[in-house]
Design goal:
single chain; about 190 residues; mainly alpha; two-stranded antiparallel sheet
Length: about 190
């Protein structure tokens, strides 16, 4: 039976009782009062047990809620730390990538500059070789022309035009720059 109902019945019993004139006392039906009190004694442990169960259930729900809240907070904290770590790694990767690109650009500029210096040096050397070869060719041509003049000139200059005529008919070989070894061999003749 519900304890509240038993309390209401006890209150009704007191209201039904007779008041003693000039005192604060009321006469009650003792048997009915004891019966209600016995029922209260029986009901109170049930009520207390129910209340204890309710308190335990409330405590369990609160503990579970606190655990869940703590777990959610921990997950959120871990997630934010992961995001911070990830952002830090991204920043570091960007800085590293920029450094690598800058180093690659510097290295490319250095290699380009060295290649330009090398090409300039090779072209200068080639120019000197061609100039030297051209000088040798010119010297060879002059030497050949001079030798032909000496061979075709008569000991006595009776016919000046005849001595000049073979020189005009001399056919000069074209200069070939494709084979510097042959040009050098021709100049040494």
């Amino acid at each position: 039976m519900d304890i509240q109902h038993l309390v209401d019945r006890l209150e009704d019993l007191i209201d039904e009782g007779r008041h003693l004139f000039g005192t604060k006392y009321t006469m009650l039906d003792e048997e009915r009062a004891l019966e209600i009190i016995d029922q209260m004694r029986i009901s109170i442990p049930d009520e207390i047990e129910r209340a204890a169960r309710t308190i335990q259930q409330r405590d369990r729900v609160l503990a579970e809620a606190n655990e869940e809240a703590a777990r959610i907070v921990q997950q959120a904290r871990q997630h934010s730390e992961d995001l911070i770590d990830e952002q830090e790694m991204v920043k570091q990767a960007k800085v590293r990538a920029e450094f690598v690109i800058e180093q690659a650009n510097l290295e490319a500029a250095k290699i380009t500059q060295e290649a330009d210096h090398y090409v300039l040096a090779q072209l200068s050397q080639l120019e000197q070789q061609f100039a030297h070869t051209l000088d040798e060719i010119r010297n060879g041509i002059q030497l050949m022309q001079h030798e032909e003049q000496v061979e075709t000139e008569p000991a006595f200059d009776f016919e000046p035009q005849a001595a000049q005529a073979p020189q005009r008919g001399i056919r000069q070989q074209p200069i070939s720059f494709d084979r510097p070894a042959q040009a050098a061999a021709a100049s040494s003749l």
